[in-house]
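Check out one such.
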Amino acid sequence: MNRDQLFKENERLKLENNKLKFILRENKILLEENKRLTSLLEMKQSLTEKIQFAKVYFRKPENMYDQFYIDLGEKDGIKKNMIVSQGEKLIGRIVEVYENSSLVYMITKESIVVSAKSENHMFGVVKGIGEDKLYFEPNVYDDSLKVGDKIYTSGISDIYPGDMYIGYISEIEKGDNSLFTSITIRPSINISNLKEVLVIQSRRNYEN
C-alpha cells in the first residue's frame, strides 16, 4: 500500500470513527430522554390526579429561575393555575394560556409565595427570590428545624395541593438572640436541566 492509499485509508477510518461517535452520542441522548420519560411515567402512575406530559420548549437564560413555556395550551385543555411538577416535586403553576403553549411561573421566581410545612409539621411560607434557592419563613420559630429537613406544600391554598415536595433545608442562620434570621431551601428539582414536566389537573377549581 503506497502513501496515497495509506492517506485515503486513514481519512476513511477517520470518517467512520466520526460516524460512530455521532451514533454513540445520538444513542446516549435517546437513552437519557428515555430514562427521563420512563421516570415521568412512573411518577404519573403514582399520582391520582389527571396528568398530562409537556415539554419545555422556550426558556430565556435571564429567566432561568423565573419562568418557561411548555408545548401545551388551550387546545390541550390547559387552564390557568394548573400545577406543574416532576412527579410529586413542585415546579410551579400555569399563569398564561395560549392556543398551543402556556407560560409557567416557577416557585423560585421572585415574589412567589407558597404555603408550606416542614416534615415535622411546622407551618409557614416558602418565598422565591429569583435564584436556585428559596426561603422558608415559619409561623413560629423554634429549634425543631434542622438542616436536611424536607419542606412540603401545606395544602392551605386555593392553588397548590398538599404534600408536594418543595425542597430541603440547606442552611439555617441565626442571629445574636438565637432566633432564625433566614432558612434557606434547596429546590427538589434540577432547575437548569428541565426538559419534560407534568401538568396536574387537580380537583381544585381553576380560572378560565
